[in-house]
Specification:
The complex is a heterodimer of chains A (about 80) and B (about 375).
Chain A lengths: L1 H4 L2 H37 L3 H30 L2
Chain B lengths: L1 H34 L5 H15 L5 H8 L9 H20 L6 H17 L6 H34 L4 H41 L11 H17 L2 H10 L5 H20 L6 H16 L6 H31 L5 H22 L11
Helix pairs in contact in B: 1-2, 1-4, 1-7, 1-8, 1-9, 1-10, 1-11, 2-7, 2-8, 3-7, 4-5, 4-12, 4-13, 5-12, 6-10, 6-11, 7-8, 7-10, 10-11, 12-13
The chains are: A mainly alpha (about 80), B mainly alpha (about 375).
């Protein structure tokens, strides 16, 4: 009875999408901040190669955040 | 003629509800940004208002659920919808008066279910829709937001834990402009659609639209405008409760709470679940606080909010049923709804006048 009432597939997809998007975006944004922090620290310590690598990782993470947000909005508008 | 007057009253009342929904739920959207200093209050509210408006145009899945999956449109009359709306608005105003962030969405669904039961009996309620699309998501959504925000903030602290606090705070504050914007967009998509669904239900009940019709464009545009204006008007009392009384947040917690809220609401909207944005963002706020330190959450305030949540469906249903009874005292025409509208307006003016004098008991939130 309950199994027929509950929209199990839709509910599970909602849970999965929320976990992946919510945790993923926050994690990637944190990596972006880490990259900015490391770039500043390592740049001060005159380690330009490591600083550039950290900055690249940070920028990539922020680009992934932007991509995830745009993808989310596109999915919403194409239901 | 009489049915047209009632339909007009329903549409005006639905848009008024939409306004109070935006007004009541402004806190959900902007409180975390304001409390962490990510945005100035007026800027945050203006931005949220604009994105609420845009969000309302994104999807109509939730509107379809409200119009077709909660009560049987075949037996519903515009007067039933009207009484349900009055129940929802009354409960929204009561919880606003006491500073409690309860759910406008559940108030709306509770009000309509209550008035439908009073008018037609339990046969009018689509149990499958109410349980599967409203009650179960209502339980799952805040727990999900709690978990998402908790795990997200735990990971974030691990990633940025050794960085200088200045750059971390600044970074998350910038991030909150995006996460707050997404949350406002999500709020617009889910909450404005409930009004669209209710107006569509009334149009179907009046015979203006066919049983399987989607909301017309003018319904979408007017709902978007009403919720955006309501959001712009703001609800400072509830902003204070959500933003500072549940936990004292840092920018990272604000970002993770907003991100979790937006993710849960957008995913749910995609599948047509009309969930409570209030439940979700408060779940996110509590999750981001509890992950740092369980005692960081003021559980007494959280408990009071939960009591308001539990009361919302039955209380709005009871007011909706009572309102339907009152409209029928003077017959089946438009006179009943007109008298109820006048009574409701005078109560609203009284409540606002008392609030303006600062007479509302803010301590009712239990802090």
């Amino acid at each position: 009875m309950i199994a027929t009432i509950v929209h199990t597939d839709e509910l599970l997809q909602t849970i999965a999408a929320s976990l992946i998007a919510g945790i993923g975006v926050t994690f990637l944004f944190s990596v972006g901040i880490w990259g900015a922090g490391q770039f500043t620290e390592l740049g001060r310590g005159e380690r330009p190669v490591a600083a550039t690598a950290a900055a690249l990782v940070g920028v990539l993470a922020l680009l992934c955040v932007a991509g995830a947000v745009i993808t989310g909005i596109i999915v919403m508008t194409h239901k | 003629m009489s049915s047209d007057v009632i339909l007009f009253l329903v549409i005006a009342t639905a848009l008024a509800f939409d306004f109070t929904n935006g007004f009541h739920d402004t806190a959900n959207v902007v409180a975390t940004s304001i409390s962490t200093g990510a945005a100035r209050p007026q800027v945050a509210i203006g931005f949220a208002s604009l994105l609420n408006f845009v969000g309302a145009f994104i999807s109509i899945s939730v509107a379809a659920t409200v119009a077709k999956d909660v009560v049987d449109a075949e037996v519903i009359t515009p007067t039933i919808v009207f009484a349900g709306l009055i129940g929802a608005i009354a409960w929204n105003l009561i919880t606003w008066y006491f500073g409690l962030p309860s759910s406008s969405s559940h108030a709306l669904i509770g009000g309509v279910v209550g008035s439908a039961v009073a008018a037609v009996g339990f046969d009018a309620v689509i149990a499958e829709g109410v349980i599967g699309k409203v009650l179960i998501p209502a339980v799952v959504a805040p727990i999900l937001a709690f978990l998402v925000a908790g795990i997200a903030i735990g990971l974030s602290y691990r990633v940025v834990g050794k960085q200088r606090p200045g750059i971390v705070s600044r970074g998350y504050r910038y991030g909150q402009i995006v996460s707050g914007g997404l949350l406002a967009l999500a709020h617009g998509t889910n909450d404005a659609q409930k009004t669209m669904g209710i107006i569509t239900l009334a149009l179907i009940a009046n015979g203006t639209l066919g049983a399987e019709s989607d909301p017309p464009f003018w319904v979408i545009a007017s709902s978007a405008t009403a919720i955006a204006l309501g959001t712009y008007s703001g609800g400072w009392r509830i902003i204070k409760t959500t933003g500072t009384r549940i936990i004292k947040m840092d920018a990272a917690q604000g970002f993770s709470a907003q991100g979790a809220g937006a993710a849960v609401i957008l995913a749910s909207t995609h599948f047509g679940f009309p969930l409570s944005t209030t439940h979700v963002i408060n779940g996110g706020v509590m999750g981001s606080g509890a992950a740092k330190r369980l005692s960081a959450v003021r559980w007494g305030v959280a408990g009071n909010i939960m009591v308001a949540w539990l009361l919302t469906l039955p209380a709005a249903a009871a007011i909706g049923a009572l309102t339907y009874g009152v409209t029928r005292i003077v017959g089946t025409g438009a006179l009943g709804p007109m008298l109820v509208t006048l009574m409701a307006l005078s109560l609203v003016v009284t409540a606002f006048a008392r609030r303006a004098k600062g007479g509302a008991p803010v301590e009712a939130t239990g802090t």
